[in-house]
Design goal:
This protein is an alpha/beta fold. It has one domain: 3-Layer(aba) Sandwich (Collagenase (Catalytic Domain)). Helix content is 32%, strand content 17%. It has five helices and six strands. It has helices spanning 4-22, 57-69, 128-131, 139-154, 182-191, and strands at residues 38-39, 43-48, 73-75, 90-94, 103-110, 118-126. Helix 2 (57-69) packs across helix 4 (139-154). The chain is globular, with a radius of gyration of 20 Å.
Length: 192
């Protein structure tokens, strides 16, 4: 009988090792945004504030990227009074941010009853003057990249160097910079 125990332990160790090895390395670090929060569910609703007027299409674009490339759904309410509720997942603002800051995302409301790691509502602020600086000639792509980037933070993504989650201006006009990496998509789909 004692000979069978080491085999059983060895088999368990092999199974555990296999499970650890096959887990996505990116998922092991999710969420890795600034406040280590995730959204409350897989439906990500959004509304534009009254001052978000320069280019509201960037907000719709970013939400569509999330909805079209992951298991999450984006939802813009047809009923305008819905936007009066704080439960909206993403509120879009146009702001004059600190010099050099193109966009920011902050968790505006946590679900403390369920978990302090769940953000029920995020504020996304874009600074179009920073995005459209005189040096950058790719304003259309840059606006959308930054919007996708900030929405990524709202669902738990951190920075990288290979997708829209790259900090700063886009290196070129490739679609790579306006979408999420395969690892980011796996993290989102694995969580939601």
């Amino acid at each position: 009988m004692p000979k069978r125990i080491p085999k059983a332990i060895g088999l368990v160790a092999c199974v555990v090792t296999t499970l650890i090895a096959t887990q996505s390395p990116a998922y092991a670090q999710f969420p890795n945004n600034g406040d280590s929060t995730v959204a409350d569910n897989a439906v990500h609703t959004y509304c534009f504030t009254s001052g978000f007027t320069t280019d509201p299409s960037v907000g719709s674009y970013a939400m569509a990227v999330l909805g079209n490339t992951t298991d999450m759904d984006d939802l813009f309410p047809i009923d305008p009074p819905f936007c009066q509720f704080r439960e909206t997942d993403v509120w879009w603002f146009e702001s004059n941010l600190a010099a050099g800051t193109r966009g920011v995302r902050d968790c505006a409301d946590y679900n403390l009853a369920a978990s302090p790691d769940i953000c029920t509502s995020s504020d996304v602020e874009l600074d179009f003057a920073e995005l459209d600086d005189a040096v950058d000639v790719d304003d259309w792509e840059d606006r959308r990249k930054t919007a996708v980037h900030e929405v990524g933070h709202s669902v738990g993504l951190g920075h990288d160097t290979i997708s829209a989650m790259k900090s700063g201006e886009i290196p070129d006009t490739s679609l790579t910079w306006r979408t999420y990496s395969a690892a980011d998509i796996a993290d989102i789909n694995g969580h939601y």
